[in-house]
Design a protein that fits this description.
Layout (H helix, E strand, L loop, with lengths): L1 E10 L11 H18 L3 E7 L2 H9 L6 E4 L10 E6 L3 E9 L7 E2 L6 E2 L1 E11 L2 E7 L17 H30 L8 E6 L7 H5 L25 E2 L12 E3 L2 E3 L2 E5 L1 H4 L2 E6 L8 E2 L17 E5 L4
Parallel strand pairs: 1-2, 9-10, 12-16
Antiparallel strand pairs: 1-17, 2-4, 3-4, 5-8, 6-7, 8-9, 10-14, 11-14, 12-13, 15-17
Length: 313
């Protein structure tokens, strides 16, 4: 199985508030996305930033072969991007995941004290063949401020909204990890579980490491070759298996970042035969803090990540 994840960057039809301004720009975007997907030829592809189901259908119509499609029903009304999945095999056991675990307190998200108890962009759990997958798109590191601003009034506002975003991203990571716990059930050596998506942070970030479960045994450490009692609950980030020169999925103000990830249970990490990003040539363009600057840009500002697993079929 070749499983992948890709942030499609504001996939809206032209004429909407967030989509391309004209049909030509939209067609160029679809052509760029479709060319990359056809080149990579995944069996299952988790996608993020799907703005309209109709736009995703337009993309699928350009792809080679037949695809099954499911999208999340949980998204923010003000910017209705959501996660989804494209699969060559039938998709089963779909679950919308958004509510924070009961023991987790509500999270403040603005200066007015607004608190949330669920992910604004819900995660999606689904099954393809005998593999359970969860895709998510955590709160962005690109901050937005009241009134639709992308620049703060002062550094105090920047710091506060940075903290709100960090707390929210951490709560969302806990929520998805709780879903993974249910899927693993303490049997990760025999259960095929994958968590993948845009985590909006790098592999060693605290929020990203929440997904891993018990500490230790990461790929590249001495503990990886020594199974222990934590293995049944662990997820392994496959990023270290990507060639070093290609180990990034976004370029922010000239800096390469690995913020899109594929994590696998013990059963699958031992069966991962190849992991890579779909970077160019050319690589993803360098972006800045204002996403509106790329409204008419082709393709995506993210690179996909794909992982091949030998499932013996």
């Amino acid at each position: 199985m070749l499983a992948g994840t890709w942030n499609l960057e504001n996939l809206f039809r032209p004429g909407s508030e967030f989509g391309p301004r004209d049909r030509g720009a939209y067609d160029a975007k679809l052509a760029g996305l479709a060319a990359t997907i056809d080149r990579l030829a995944p069996d299952v592809l988790a996608v993020q930033e799907v703005g309209e189901e109709e736009a995703l259908a337009d993309l699928v119509a350009r792809l080679a072969g037949d695809w099954h499609v499911v999208t999340s029903t949980v998204f923010e009304p003000d910017h209705p991007i959501r996660v989804g999945v494209l699969s060559r095999s039938p998709i089963g056991e779909v679950e919308q995941v958004s509510e924070f675990p009961a023991a987790l307190s509500p999270v403040q998200v603005d200066d007015g004290g607004t608190a949330i108890r669920a992910m604004g962009r819900g995660a999606l759990r689904f099954r393809v063949r005998d593999v359970d997958l969860v895709t998510c798109h955590l709160k962005s590191k690109l901050l937005s401020f009241p009134g639709g601003r992308f620049s703060p009034r002062d550094e105090g506002e920047r710091a506060r909204f940075g903290a709100y975003a960090l707390h929210r991203r951490a709560a969302e990571a806990v929520t998805v990890r709780a879903c993974a716990d249910r899927l693993l059930g303490g049997r990760g050596e025999e259960r095929a579980v994958i968590v993948l998506g845009d985590l909006n942070d790098v592999p060693l970030a605290a929020t990203t490491q929440i997904f891993l479960g018990p500490p230790g045994s990461e790929i590249g450490t001495a503990g990886y070759e020594r199974p222990d009692r934590g293995d049944p609950w662990r997820l392994w980030n496959l990023a270290p298996l990507i060639p070093a020169e290609r180990r990034f999925t976004r370029v922010f103000e000239g800096r390469r970042e690995m913020i899109d990830h594929v994590l696998a249970s013990r059963f699958l990490v031992t069966r991962a035969t190849a992991v890579d990003t779909g970077t160019g040539p050319p690589p993803p363009p360098s972006i800045g803090p204002d996403p509106r600057a790329r409204r008419d840009a082709p393709a995506s500002d993210h690179a996909p990540v794909v992982a091949r697993f030998d499932l013996g079929d």
